[in-house]
Each structure stands twice: as C-alpha cells, then as structure tokens.
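Entry 0007
Protein: FERM domain-containing protein 5
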Amino acid sequence: MLSRLMSGSSRSLEREYSCTVRLLDDTEYTCTIQRDAKGQYLFDLLCHHLNLLEKDYFGIRFVDPDKQRHWLEFTKSVVKQLRSQPPFTMCFRVKFYPADPAALKEEITRYLVFLQIKRDLYHGRLLCKTSDAALLAAYILQAEIGDYDPGKHPEGYSSKFQFFPKHSEKLEKKIAEIHKTELSGQTPATSELNFLRKAQTLETYGVDPHPCKDVSGNAAFLAFTPFGFVVLQGNKRVHFIKWNEVTKLKFEGKTFYLYVSQKEEKKIILTYFAPTPEACKHLWKCGIENQAFYKLEKSSQVRTVSSSNLFFKGSRFRYSGRVAKEVMESSAKIKREPPEIHRAGMVPSRSCPSITHGPRLSSVPRTRRRAVHISIMEGLESLRDSAHSTPVRSSSHGDTFLPHVRSSRADSNERVAVIADEAYSPADSVLPTPVAEHSLELMLLSRQINGATCSIEEEKESEASTPTAAEVEALGGELRALCQGHGGPEEEQVNKFVLSVLRLLLVTMGLLFVLLLLLIILTESDLDIAFFRDIRQTPEFEQFHYQYFCPLRRWFACKIRSVVSLLIDT
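Output (structure tokens):
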C-alpha cells in the first residue's frame, strides 16, 4: 500500500513542471503547471498575479530549441509547444498594441503598456526625432523619480539613466531641462499617460519587426501595427497598407505573400523571403492574428485560415481571442476600485537600464551581447521633423524616414542622433520576433561586407547562453561560407519550381496507384456490393475485362512462372 502511494506521488510530481515568466518590469513570476495545462491556464495565472483585467492586449512569448521565438497559443498544451527541457522560461509582453493607449480603462493596463513602449524606445524599435526623444525621456524621468529636487538631483543627473541605444550630452541636457521646467507637479500616472499619447503619434508605434528580403534580395523589415501592414527598407517606409486593404496572407516555405486590394480594383501581391521556413510561418501567424484583432467587428467572424495549395503542404491556423472592438466594449463595463500599482521605481533592470544609476553607456547592464564584433556607429541618425508630423494611420504609402546626413564628427555632435540608424535596423538592438541565430548572423556579416556598420544588443527574453570564443570562430567560418554560396531569389524560385514538379509527380503516382487498387478489387474480388456490381454489369467493363485484363493477367502469370522455374533450375 505504501509503495503504491509513493509511486503515485512520484508520477504526479513528474507531471508537474516549473515555469518562470519574466514580466515587463523585469521581475519574475514562478509557478508550477501540470503536463496537460493549456496556455490559457498559465496566462490567467499571470493576469491574476498582476491584477489585470484588460488582458487581451498581452501575450506570452518563448523561444524554441531552434532559437525561433513564438507567441504561446492559449488553446494548446504549454509543454508540447515549448519542446524544451524544464524549467521553462517565458516572457510576458504586449502582443497587440492598443490603437489609442490613452483610452485604456484602467491605470494598471496603461502602466504595463508604458513599460513595453519604454523597452521599445530603449531597444531601438521606436524611432523618433531628437525633440520627441527628449520629451519622451523626460516623461520617463518624471514618472520614475518625480519632481526635480536640487538637493537630490545634482548637475548631470539625467546622464545616469539610459533611455536610448545611444545619446549625447546635449540630449541629456535637453532631457534635464524639460524635466525641470515643464513637468513639475505631474504624478507618475499623468507622466505615463502623456508618454503614451506622444508615443502613439510616432510612425513606428507598435512595430514588431520581422527581418526579410524582397524579390531583389534587399533587406527589409515587415511589421504589423494597429493601423495596418508596414514594410521598412533603409530609412524609407516603402509600403503602408491599411487592414481593410489586406485581403489574404499566405506563406510557402520561406516565401511570404501579402494580397492587397486597393481602390479602383487595383490588386497587388507583395512577396518577401524570410530567413527560415519557421520564421516565415511565425510571420504568417502574427499577420493572421493582427488582422483578425484589428480588422474584424466580432470574434464570431474569425475563420480558420489555410496556407496550402495544390502542390504545397500548408498550415491551418485560427485566431482564438477576442477582437479589439470587443475588448474596448468589455473594458467600458469594468467597475471596480483601481488596483494598487507597484511601480518599478529605482529597482535595477536587466534589459531596460533607464531606471538604473551608473555611468552613461559604459556600465549599462547588458543581458546578452552578440559574439560577432561589429563596430559601433559614431552617431545614430536623427530624423527630420517632417518625417513624423502625422501619425501612421493618416500616412500615405510613400512616406519615408528621412536620414540626417552627417558632414563631420563635430557636426554629428551638434545635430544629436537619437535612435535611427543609417538603415532602420532594430536587429542592432533586439529582434522581438527573431529568426534563427545563423540567419541573423548571416545578415549582419553581409552588412559588414557592404560597408555598413551597426551595433548589437539583444534583449534577454530567453535562457540561451552566450557562445564561447571557439564557437564564435567556428560559426563565423560557417557564415562566411554561407555568404559566399548564398543564392538569390532566382535560385529560390528554381528550387520551388523543382519541388512543385516533384510534388505533382508524387500526387499523380498516388492517384494511379489508387486506381490500380480499385481495378484489382473490381476484377479479382468477390465483394457483392451494389456499387461494384453495377460497374461489373456495364458492357464497357465486361469488354475491358475479357479483351484486355484477362490476357494481361495470363501474360503476367506466364512470366512469373518462367522466372520462378528459372530460379529453381539455377
């Protein structure tokens, strides 16, 4: 009896797994889940811990063993999705950026979105001109340390905070000036609300970039925002397509297709190539979810989407949550006392050092540095004021991010460069939706070959460890070999055509095999089924049976007997 109890308890322990989820303020939430626990169960535990009701904007992200990031699907088992060894490590992040974050019902929701956008600002995903950057940083400063106090905040106090990937002393002075003179008396909640209102007007608000290549082989970043689909190349936004113009999203292997229907019956198909099939599938699923969330009126309108066609084995996916309109209607019905908010304040942060003290840039805590040694730019490009004069929802397809041309090092110090690089490249800091490690390194090495420079800082959203020097050297050799042998889009098109032909041949052979089996059943079996009986009684079948099939069968039998007799004689 005792042994049975012990064996039963050990089996129950084996079915429990430890999960650690990193929250937006860099604290960690640890819990245990059963083997068959769904993603919804873990997400509900997190939201209960955070006292969060407007939870549809958020999600849980994880990294699979192949270094590809995913959003946790709430309708599937957590253990089966992660495919890694416990304990499991995941991240709580904003998945759907609210179109108007200032209109969120509860302060706790606005605070969490504020933390996410602050991360975007620091990691280079949110681009803005210098004046906007100074104002956003001043709002962060006011929210975290309160009003300016000469006794507590000596000269140069703003330099002890890191708001952006890189900034200058001139920008630090501008941040401190705004904090001293314009924001006095604002509570943390008011500063965060003003921060959200300002961030929402920027063109890259809500951008979660996916690195790809276009049909010409040029690097591009695809993103889904609350207002539509965005393609960034260099410092230009080459495409902005509203959600009501997107008719279909599809992928085949590493190729992603976006079908667009614009005014005057004009139809466009945009084609891009992801680094890996897994990255392309993730891009497709993100697009399906964002389109359903922002475009549809009701969740009952959500349909299962398939990417398959005649020659390609496709995937089926269905968005399982509520849509934006339903979320807003549900939020309006919330009636409770505002929950208490435990703000991070001056607690050290692993991945967003804007709330840590220390020397500027040099001692900022890094989560995991890239092993590839790439030179850091002397100054980051700032954008002209006209580039961000209107929010993304009212922009045309031809809007661009205009770079500021540097004439000298001194001129670069005068015209402060904030976030934008020579080419829009959030990969220089963090890829929220990354591709496999070797694909990202390949892209970076190609940038070095072309003479471009960039800096790499990766946000700690996974438990992946830093590679050793030997591994880096070996990886570098492999990547250079890949760069030399990397084919263009034409080669990929040829490979796709060959695969299509092979699939066609396999399908044809399968159909012929099925027909052969049916023919044998009709002629050789004694099955007395009405369907078979009707076919056997037709004149055409009788003629085929006696004039063709029976002689062919006798010929095969004769050949088989001769072969068998030959084998016996030998």
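Curator remark: The first strand starts at residue 16 and ends at 22. The domain at 101-126+128-200 is CATH 1.20.80.10 (Acyl-CoA Binding Protein).
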